[in-house]
Specification:
It contains 2 helices and 9 strands. The chain is 21% helix and 27% strand. Strand 1 (65-72) and strand 2 (77-85) form a beta hairpin. By secondary structure, it is α+β, with helices and mostly antiparallel strands.
Length: 161
C-alpha cells in the first residue's frame, strides 16, 4: 500500500506516550532551563554586588588627616595643629566657621604653595587673617578644597561646651 497517511506512526511530542509520564517531558525541560538561567542570573548579580560592597576602593581614597584644637579662652584664640595624616598644599586647606572662610596659607602668613605637614600650626584670632575672636561656642571645620575635585571636611572643632 503506497501513498497512505505520512503522519501515521508519528507521536505528538506534547502528548503522552503510552506508559510515559502524563503531559510529556517538555514542561520539565523548560522548567529546568528557566531554573538554570535564574540561578546563573542570581550568581552573577550576587558576585558583582559582593565585589562592589567589599572592594576596598582601588581608586583614590581621598585625603586623610587629623587635627588637634587648643582653645585659649582668655585670649579668644583657637590654635589648630595638623597632628597626623597626608601632606597638603596650604592653598587647598581652608578653616571655616559660619561667618568666615580663610585659607591656611593666609592664617600662617605663608606662600600659597607651601606644604602643610604634621606639626604645622595656625591660630585663629582677631589679630590675623581670621579677623575676629573665636568664641567657646563657635564651630570650625578644616576643609580640603583642591582646585579640581570634591571638598572634604577633614576635622571639626565643635567648641568647648
Amino acid at each position: 500500500m503506497t501513498g497512505g497517511d505520512p503522519r501515521r506512526g508519528r507521536t505528538d511530542r506534547g502528548g503522552s506516550e503510552p506508559g510515559g509520564p502524563p503531559g510529556g517531558d517538555r514542561g520539565v525541560s523548560e522548567f529546568t532551563g528557566v531554573a538554570i538561567l535564574v540561578g546563573i542570573t542570581l550568581l552573577v548579580t550576587g558576585s558583582v554586588g559582593l565585589y562592589v560592597l567589599v572592594d576596598s576602593g582601588s581608586g583614590n581614597p581621598g585625603p586623610n588627616a587629623n587635627f588637634t584644637f587648643q582653645y585659649l579662652d582668655s585670649a579668644s584664640v583657637l590654635v589648630v595643629t595638623h597632628d597626623r595624616g597626608d601632606n597638603f598644599t596650604a592653598s587647598n586647606l581652608t578653616l571655616r566657621s559660619s561667618e568666615r572662610s580663610v585659607p591656611w596659607h593666609e592664617l600662617a602668613n605663608a606662600p600659597e604653595n607651601s606644604s602643610v605637614t604634621p606639626g604645622s600650626t595656625v591660630q585663629l584670632s582677631r589679630r590675623n587673617a581670621y579677623g575676629e575672636p573665636v568664641g567657646s561656642g563657635d564651630r570650625i571645620a578644616v576643609v580640603h578644597a583642591p582646585p579640581a575635585g570634591n571638598e572634604t571636611v577633614l576635622d571639626r572643632w565643635n567648641g568647648t561646651g
